[in-house]
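ok trying this again, last paste got cut off
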Amino acid sequence: MEEWRDDMNEEIESIKQILPTTPACNIYGDVGGKAEAIRVWIESVLHKIIHYKAEQRRYLKEAATILELALWKKRLSEINVPEGDEEGRVECRVKCGADILMKNVLPFLELPP
């Protein structure tokens, strides 16, 4: 999260440095110098946003997996499933409540589209 904030602050500072020194037109009087600088800057910002959204999805998926495993482990300890009882372990995983929790927790953690 700090990396994202720092990157965005750098982008804002860069456009604040670029725009005052960029001529509105080229030596031939063609309009578009500042517009082109802004377009390039916006593309850079959008690229970073896409990168950080993908990173956030990866972190969210990892957190969801860890949460599901913790619920499964808690269920296993509650029922006291013996080592090697694969059927009991699978049943605990199905009945640990992770599906309900994920359905109700993940929407609050996801970024809007």
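PB: full thing came through this time. The first helix runs from residue 2 to 21.
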